[in-house]
Here is the input.
Amino acid sequence: MSALLELRSISCPRPEGAPIFHDISFSLNEGDILILRGRSGVGKSTLLKCIAHLNVYRGEIFYRGKAAKSYGIPAYRTHVLYVPQRPSLLPGTPRDFLASVAKFGSRRSKSKDQRAAKKGENSSDFDISECVDVGKSWGVEEELWDRNWANLSGGEAQRVVLAIAVGLDAAEVLLLDEPTSALDPVSSKSVEERLTSELRDPHSTLKGIIWITHSEEQGARVGTRFTEITPEGVRENRAATEV
Ligand SMILES: Nc1ncnc2c1ncn2[C@@H]1O[C@H](COP(=O)(O)OP(=O)(O)OP(=O)(O)O)[C@@H](O)[C@H]1O
Here is the structure.
């Protein structure tokens, strides 16, 4: 069976000078929460953007054994969803963002259809209430969905964008860029628990996560694999504390 994601010798050029990183190769398999660490500025966020086809790169990326382009980039980005560290830079409101993401996610997974059928819903209708409910479970009031991103606090924006990623239930792979960096410890734990339980739920679409964190403790709590990016490439470690 092919890996969920496979990166082969990825490098990211700069307009001038040495590439940000080069020769990054690894696979993500079903059930993995791959912790990505490395010093500030080494290129972790850039790598996630390359994987999501939001940044130019050299090398090859395969999703379920096929090149990302063969899915069509918008559809691919729905299956392999980048969750930004600073969603406050997005234009419009969370509801606007949700509408644009949902537009590309019209092909729902079988598991999503099964869950909708169980609830007696028409699976072809996208339901924002799932995202709102996930947000509520993390203390996000419904009115925030209609406020401009720029007017949400860092922690509110971070929880809203994560609620979209989870509630949409369209992505098999989530690329999480320091997803709890603006959250208090209690909210962070709640987010960690929801994401890990989604990954374990056989009815969930979610199959794998690449998770950037600077916190060794968080890496140890949620990670199943531990990698470090260096200017020379990527190194896999056996435990969070080795990084
Ligand atoms: N849009 C851009 N234009 C030019 N350089 C950029 C751009 N975005 C990032 N960089 C540079 O690319 C390098 C990698 O940045 P990146 O944000 O990927 O690092 P990071 O490892 O995620 O850092 P941190 O841990 O501080 O978030 C840095 O030197 C950064 O200044």
